[in-house]
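Take our chain:
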Amino acid sequence: MWQPYQPLVLRIIHGLTAVFTILALLTAYWTYDVYDGRWGQIPLPKFDEIEGIHGTFGLWTLLIFPLLVFYAFHRGQKRLIQTNSWEKITKINQKGWWYHLHRLVNTIILFSLTFAVFTGKMMDEKWLPNGELNHGWYYGHLIAWLMLIISLAFHLLMSAKVGGLPFLLSIINWSYKSQDSPSKWKSQIKAYWSNFRLSLFKDWWISSSWIKWLELIIWISLGAAWIISLIKEIE
């Protein structure tokens, strides 16, 4: 069966982010079930260490997620919302409508995950064990969990709709072309940095595309999550 080719770096970054995110989502519900459960719960085993495990998966997600953001907004920008996407999405009967919707969903899931890791970093690990369930950041984290569940479901549905089974299988296919060989990564990274110029950032900054502001919002949110978290640790 023919499969579209996905770059190896994308598959690794996307795969790691997906695994850590799904594990964080599952342990997040278990944490809610143990310490909260006001809006319904499943009788899961009471496991006090589950919050720490959830935090670990959340941290791993936060560490790998910036790589996915960088890739998505640069080498993978065609998979995200475009300047004409809103106009295309309003024309439901137009050819290619599903592709534009898929790009919108891909963009939304990046923001959903950003919101999830940001609100998670704003929380105090002592709140839930102490029964402090009415903090704004905790409610925000619950909303982020729900948003991420919904956007992840639509991401999978749109991927299946647009690419079908061959596209889904291409994400987990570990064969790669010679130019994607890990043995060439070191030289490719050196070449990238040797060609890097501040003018590239300047060109990005003066670009008329409003897509850059979406990327900037995510980078600011991720940076703020780390800075505020470090400030809280110092205090």
The CA atoms of residues 205 and 213 lie 9 Å apart. Helices lie at 8-35, 50-73, 85-89, 97-122, 136-172, 185-195, 198-205, 211-234.
